[in-house]
Design a protein that fits this description.
401 residues
């Protein structure tokens, strides 16, 4: 595996840390900038919205630029927004930096994912995708707790400085290691389809199915994860360390799942998606049924994290490889957008259920409903949702410079 793939994963780690760490810093930010907690919550909701809208927009805008230029520029902007956020005392400015950071994050991830078929051997694109996506799972294991701890010890600004340092440190390696010429699939030839025409790829059954399943699987994942801490807190004694332990177990499971499926997704992608999606129905059902005990929550946090992120990362690779031959500029954007639509849809739906019932554990039943819908989409598909690796990796145009 080329070292550049791991460098991209480090950048994604910094971005994933930034995306999720703010939830643990909201009270401190609200107190420091003298806004209500609800107003401070806009920092997370608008970041998610920026990710959803930013991926396709930035993929189209930067699609004709050399890959090394676009990913380095997005990463530099991401770093700069965190420096600006760390020094500002104006909430409106901080909110603006979060939106800009989200757009830069989405653009980086969309372009990086779309470029993978040209960075690695066609037979290991799925594995390379899992390595890049593992940056998000490692952020859940280490980055988010560390960022929250920094905020508790030295103030929330320290967490922003830490993200700025990590993302800034990999700008030059990304620029230096992404080749000037990347083979096939990242951009069309000069006579290839326009960026508008590329969106017609959503009308093809394999891409549409993969996108829909990815949205539903990730909606289930984030519906459960968002309320996992609240579920645990309701069972643990005040002051216990069960909440960070359970959240860490979910992160460990996620990392294991992404790593394991990454080794086999290039050869067994359809089987992983079909069996994994069906299995997730049972996983979320069991998680909901055992949510009344701490051991049950801890065990199922690990299991659900592993299977959910294993299937989710495989779906990301499926979208990229299926869409890349005919929509090289937006293939990565489709995967990024699907992931983040799920990340917005799942918690929003679960929040309605939890508010109505007053029971955080009901969010797990919401996850079950999403995975049943995902399974229905998979099982009603009459043909394979992903082409063979050789077909998916077929060159779509001239090399990038």
């Amino acid at each position: 595996m080329p070292i550049v793939v791991f460098v991209l994963a480090v950048a994604v780690f910094a971005q994933g840390t930034s995306e999720f760490m703010v939830s643990g810093l909201l009270e401190r930010i609200a107190d420091d900038l003298e806004v209500s907690l609800g107003t401070a919550g806009l920092l997370t909701s608008l970041f998610a919205a920026g990710m959803v809208l930013g991926a396709p927009a930035m993929a189209v805008a930067a699609g004709r630029l050399p890959v090394r230029h676009s990913v380095a520029a997005f990463l530099a902007v991401f770093c700069a927004t965190h420096i600006a956020g760390a020094v500002t005392s104006d909430f409106a400015v901080l909110l603006t930096t979060r939106v800009v950071a989200a757009v830069a994050n989405a653009g980086f991830l969309a372009i990086a994912l779309a470029a993978l078929p040209g960075l690695v051997d066609p037979a290991v694109v799925g594995r390379a995708t899992s390595v890049v996506v593992s940056g998000v799972t490692v952020a859940g294991i280490a980055g988010v707790p560390a960022g929250t701890l920094l905020g508790q010890v030295w103030g929330w600004r320290a967490a922003f400085w830490a993200v700025a340092v990590i993302s800034g440190a990999v700008v030059i390696p990304v620029w230096a290691m992404v080749p000037r010429t990347v083979r096939a699939g990242d951009r069309p030839t000069p006579r290839g389809p326009s960026s508008v025409q590329e969106w017609t790829v959503l009308g093809t059954r394999p891409v549409l199915v993969a996108v829909l399943v990815a949205i539903l699987v990730n909606a289930a994942t984030f519906a459960g994860f968002t309320f996992l801490g609240s579920i645990t807190a309701g069972l643990a004694e005040p002051g216990s360390r069960w909440v960070p332990i359970v959240l860490a177990l979910f992160g460990v499971g996620s990392f294991v799942g992404v790593t394991f499926t990454g080794r086999y997704s290039d050869r067994h992608r359809e089987r992983i998606v079909t069996l994994g999606t069906s299995g997730l129905v049972g996983v979320w059902l069991l998680a909901a049924s055992t949510a009344h005990t701490l051991p049950g929550v801890a065990i199922m946090a690990t299991v659900s994290g592993a299977i959910a992120f294993g299937v989710g990362s495989t779906l990301i690779a499926t979208i990229v490889q299926t869409a890349a031959p005919t929509a090289p500029r937006i293939a990565g954007a489709l995967a990024t957008t699907a992931f983040n639509i799920g990340a917005v849809l799942g918690p929003a739906a679960a929040a309605v259920v939890v508010d109505h019932t007053g029971q955080p554990a009901k969010a797990l039943w919401c996850g079950t409903a999403f995975t049943i819908a995902a399974m229905a989409v998979v099982l009603t598909s009459q043909r394979p949702i992903a082409p063979r690796v050789a077909t998916a990796a077929a060159p779509a145009g001239d090399p990038i410079e």
